[in-house]
Write a structure and sequence with these properties.
about 180 residues, mainly alpha, Rhomboid-like fold, disordered N terminus
Length: about 180
Amino acid sequence: MFVSLPSRKKPALRWATPVLFAALWIAFLWAATRPAETHRSLLLAWGALSGGLSTPEAWIGALRDGSALRLFTALFLHADWAHLLGNLVFLLIFGLPAERTMGPWRFLLLFLVGGAFSNLAAALTIGAPERVIIGASGAVSAVIGAYLALFPRAKLGVVLPLGLFLEFVKGPWRGRLEQGRL
């Protein structure tokens, strides 16, 4: 007979996800409270620019002048509240369990490096120099990927307000729903 004994080892404190959560909020509030022209120049100065990195000389120049760091700083800038809230919700849902398994330092490294690589991929793909890449969506996608790799059999539930779903999806029930016969 086997008896399950609780481990004496304390569960590791998860601090990286809350720190990232707070940093994303603080950066957004700081940028959002700036006047419109200052806010725009802030996005241009700290967001990842999408054009101009197509040659090795451009890469060397970006590394020398420090503009390659904008691949990281762009993670903390967001276009609006919805952009930020979407990233924060998924960061909490998938980040806390992933951090518990990976540890805070590996998790933080995953977030920053995954986000920088996704910004780099976007910069190389978009290629239009007037476009600015901002947000933590790529970093959160890296966290979701790690979660799915760490917990391949995890069941994920989705809450979807039915009325909202039926509003955007057309189906055979559409005419009956509008006539009140569903």
